[in-house]
């Protein structure tokens, strides 16, 4: 369980989310979505690595992993749509709370990609 109260915790959760989405889509046979999730994961890892010295250690409030519960056991189209909607909502809600612009943009971009996949 992640505590989403700091820059590093949010990026770690996002990286884990994308890795799990990659594995989920790979198992479902959606190699294009698996590759997109892996690309987002790599981007978020780079952003975290490059900006770790830039972060202000201000606490982040109002976020809980429990708000982003995902059902990894439903490979149906509805299940995939629900995953994408939850991932998009996560990124929309966390991006404004990040005080590093490059990281914020990467989170916003990931959210837009998930929103596009949710339709």
Share of residues in strands: under 5%
N-to-C order of helices and strands = HHHH
Count all strands and give the number. 0
Mean pLDDT: 91
From the alpha carbons, calculate the radius of gyration and give it in angstroms. Answer: 14 Å
Helix content, binned percent: 55-70%
The secondary structure category is mainly alpha
Largest sheet: none
How far apart are the termini? 29 Å
Count of discrete alpha- or pi-helical segments spanning 4 or more residues: 4
Q: Given the C-alpha coordinates, what overall shape results?
A: globular
Low-confidence stretches: none
Folded structure, characterized:
By secondary structure, this protein is mainly α. It has a domain at 35-51 and 74-119. The protein is built from 4 helices and no strands. Helix 2 runs antiparallel to helix 4. The longest helix is centred in the N-terminal third of the chain and has 21 residues, at 7-27. It starts with 6 loop residues before the first helix and ends with a helix. The model has no long low-confidence stretch (mean pLDDT 91).
How are the secondary structure elements laid out?
Layout: H1 7-27, H2 31-51, H3 77-94, H4 101-117
What is the gist of this entry?
The protein has four helices and no strands. It has 119 residues and is an all-alpha fold. The chain is globular.
Key terms for this structure?
65% helix; mainly alpha; globular; 119 residues
